[in-house]
Each structure stands twice: as structure tokens, then as C-alpha cells.
């Protein structure tokens, strides 16, 4: 993503204009680099202002981050709330799914900020709290629908979390892939959710096989006698392992001693060979010297 730059205006910006400029720039940087990866210096440099200007408007990086997150949350909540104002439950579900996907499509930077691991500076402005707030609105819709169909309305909060979680995770996936199109994704989401809700079993249970597996009693705890025997067996294994280790150490030491002795023997043999060579060279030198003297005597006669 290219760095956002603001052209230097010929006239001096008002305080509100400068504030909006800093929010736009910070929003782009936070979406691209996250809270920790963005610095006040970078925000100020991109806006072509000094750092004190940013501090003057927001008090620091935490302040501008909180403003960005709060704006994105409010924008998405308004879109979801308007969608849930429809009269029929199916239409509510369709419009809510479309609203989320529309927000992702039109405000990708904002959605990336919301789904990113939020910094403590965001306060309640985290994706988890956003999902919980949307789920509380869906909960009211489901409670009325459950009551009308003879289901227990007390289960509405749990089903609301399931439903909103399914839509939100699909939105996170679609943020990057963007295929298929927005309306097609919404149609498939509604298909899964609505048809599942239509055929909802008012008293669901797990299968007998799964129940038996989950209810299988745990293995009984060993008795004191079994624990003592187990401890003795472990001690015996440890002693045997120590014996093997000591034997290996002794064998390694013997091998080292043998290697040293062999090395000494080879050194001695090499020394003797050098001594023999020295004696041969000395004898050859004496013979050569004697031959030279005899040759001198013959020449003098």
C-alpha cells in the first residue's frame, strides 16, 4: 500500500480540518502496520506537521487510535442496526449479512483495524466487544422468533453468538479473498443460517455413541501399593541405566588409554627410526671424509 501523503495546502487548516486530516492518515497507517508498528513521528511526517500538533489534538498515539476505532465501530453498528430494523426475520438476516460485507468492501482499512489484535488503548473498541454488541441485538430478534415457534427463548443468547460468529468469521475470510461477490456470499450465509434455523430441533441431543464416549468413566487412580511398586520399578530402571552409563564411561576410558599407548608406541618407533637414520648419515659422512683423505694422500705421492 502506498504511503498516504497530504498535499500542502496554500491556506492554513482550521483545527477541525487538521484533526480530520490526522484521523484519515492514522486510519490508513494503523490498517497497514497496526498500532505497535505505527509511530507518532510517522503520522506527523505523513501529515507534514510537527509531533506537537498530533499531541495537541489527541494527547498521543493512543488517543488517535481510540478515535479511529470508535468511529469504525459506530459506523458498522449503525449499518447492522439499520439492517435489523426490517420486519421479517429472513430479511433481517439477509440485510445484516449484506451490511457487514458492504462495510468490509467499502471500509477495508477500518475492518482491518477492528479485527486486528486491538491495543489496550482502544478500551472497549475490540472486535470481540463489537461482536458481543451486535449479538445482543440479534438476541432480541431470535428471542421473539423462538417464542413464536415454541422454542425456549432463554437459548436465544447462545444462538445469537453462534450466528453472529459465523457471519463475522466469514467476513474476515472474505476481506482478503473477495470471491465470490458480496451478494453471493450473503446468499450462502443466509442459506446456511436460515435453513438451519428453519429446521431447528427444539430439544437437540447428541448421538448415543458420542454420549457413551464422553461419559466413559476415567481410569481408576492407582493404589498406594501400586504407586510404591511403580516407584521401585522406576528406581530399578534408573539404577540399570546408571550402570550402563558407568560401564560405557569405563570402556571409553580404556579405549582412550589404549589410544594413548598406541600413540606413544608409534612416537617411540618414529624416534628410533630417526636415530637410525642419523647414525647412517653420520657413518656415511665419516666414510666420505676418509675417502677424501685417502685421495689427497694418493695425489701427494
Automatic annotation (TrEMBL):
Matching SUPFAM superfamilies: Homeodomain-like (SSF46689), Tetracyclin repressor-like, C-terminal domain (SSF48498)
Presence of keyword Transcription regulation: yes
Record keywords: DNA-binding, Transcription, Transcription regulation
Any single biological process term in GO: negative regulation of DNA-templated transcription
Any single Pfam family the record assigns to this protein: TetR_N
Keyword Transcription regulation in record: yes
Protein name: TetR family transcriptional regulator
Organism whose genome encodes this protein: Nonomuraea turkmeniaca
Amino acid at each position: 500500500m502506498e504511503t498516504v501523503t497530504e498535499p500542502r495546502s496554500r491556506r492554513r487548516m482550521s483545527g477541525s480540518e487538521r484533526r480530520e486530516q490526522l484521523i484519515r492518515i492514522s486510519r490508513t497507517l494503523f490498517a497497514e502496520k497496526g498500532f505497535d508498528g505505527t509511530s507518532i513521528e510517522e503520522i506527523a511526517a505523513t501529515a507534514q506537521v510537527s509531533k506537537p500538533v498530533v499531541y495537541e489534538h489527541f494527547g498521543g498515539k493512543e488517543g488517535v487510535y481510540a478515535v479511529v476505532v470508535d468511529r469504525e465501530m459506530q459506523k458498522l453498528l449503525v449499518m447492522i442496526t439499520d439492517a435489523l430494523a426490517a420486519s421479517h426475520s429472513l430479511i433481517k438476516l439477509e440485510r445484516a449479512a449484506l451490511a457487514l460485507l458492504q462495510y468490509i468492501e467499502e471500509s477495508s482499512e477500518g475492518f482491518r483495524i477492528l479485527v486486528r489484535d486491538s491495543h489496550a488503548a482502544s478500551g472497549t473498541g475490540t472486535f470481540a466487544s463489537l461482536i458481543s454488541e451486535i449479538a445482543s441485538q440479534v438476541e432480541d430478534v431470535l428471542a421473539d422468533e423462538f417464542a413464536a415457534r415454541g422454542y425456549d427463548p432463554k437459548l436465544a443468547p447462545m444462538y445469537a453468538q453462534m450466528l453472529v460468529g459465523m457471519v463475522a468469521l466469514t467476513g474476515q475470510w472474505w476481506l482478503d479473498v473477495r470471491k465470490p461477490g458480496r451478494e453471493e456470499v450473503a446468499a450462502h450465509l443466509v442459506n446456511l443460517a436460515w435453513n438451519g434455523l428453519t429446521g431447528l430441533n427444539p430439544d437437540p441431543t447428541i448421538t448415543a455413541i458420542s454420549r457413551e464416549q464422553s461419559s466413559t468413566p476415567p481410569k481408576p487412580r492407582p493404589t498406594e501399593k501400586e504407586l510404591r511398586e511403580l516407584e521401585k520399578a522406576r528406581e530399578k530402571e534408573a539404577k540399570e541405566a546408571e550402570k550402563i552409563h558407568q560401564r560405557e564411561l569405563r570402556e571409553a576410558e580404556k579405549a582412550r588409554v589404549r589410544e594413548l599407548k598406541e600413540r606413544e608406541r608409534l612416537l617411540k618407533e618414529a624416534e628410533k627410526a630417526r636415530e637410525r637414520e642419523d647414525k647412517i648419515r653420520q657413518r656415511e659422512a665419516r666414510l666420505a671424509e676418509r675417502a677424501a683423505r685417502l685421495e689427497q694422500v694418493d695425489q701427494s705421492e
